[in-house]
């Protein structure tokens, strides 16, 4: 299973994952330029790593993961997600959707398109989410 995951991740990286991972990291750098955007920037780098190598990883709501609320899963997290969506989230989602449509053209690309759709959903509301390894 690990070998298959490695093969899929390498194919993903070559066929669009590199571009979207760089997009996430670019947005992270933009967030770090403003001091108040540092928490958003940190999330961008974590999700950017997932955008580079998505197979074997998934996003989980931190409330479900830890069993308790925190700053990102409460009202402030919702406000942060709204700000994120308006500034960066919609553009990253559009990028992932465009890559997903290109991947769905072929049967071989369907698993890659599904990963892009997962990342598109994550790019809309990343605050309060954690990236974990699949078991």
Automatic annotation (TrEMBL):
<feature type="transmembrane region" description="Helical">
    <location>
        <begin position="7"/>
        <end position="26"/>
    </location>
</feature>
<keyword id="KW-0812">Transmembrane</keyword>
<dbReference type="Pfam" id="PF03733">
    <property type="entry name" value="YccF"/>
</dbReference>
<keyword id="KW-0997">Cell inner membrane</keyword>
<feature type="transmembrane region" description="Helical">
    <location>
        <begin position="97"/>
        <end position="114"/>
    </location>
</feature>
<feature type="transmembrane region" description="Helical">
    <location>
        <begin position="32"/>
        <end position="53"/>
    </location>
</feature>
<dbReference type="InterPro" id="IPR031308">
    <property type="entry name" value="UCP028777"/>
</dbReference>
<feature type="domain" description="Inner membrane component">
    <location>
        <begin position="79"/>
        <end position="129"/>
    </location>
</feature>
<keyword id="KW-0472">Membrane</keyword>
<keyword id="KW-1003">Cell membrane</keyword>
<protein>
    <recommendedName>
        <fullName>Inner membrane protein YccF</fullName>
    </recommendedName>
</protein>
<keyword id="KW-1133">Transmembrane helix</keyword>
<dbReference type="InterPro" id="IPR052937">
    <property type="entry name" value="Inner_membrane_protein"/>
</dbReference>
<dbReference type="InterPro" id="IPR005185">
    <property type="entry name" value="YccF"/>
</dbReference>
<feature type="domain" description="Inner membrane component">
    <location>
        <begin position="7"/>
        <end position="57"/>
    </location>
</feature>
<feature type="transmembrane region" description="Helical">
    <location>
        <begin position="74"/>
        <end position="91"/>
    </location>
</feature>
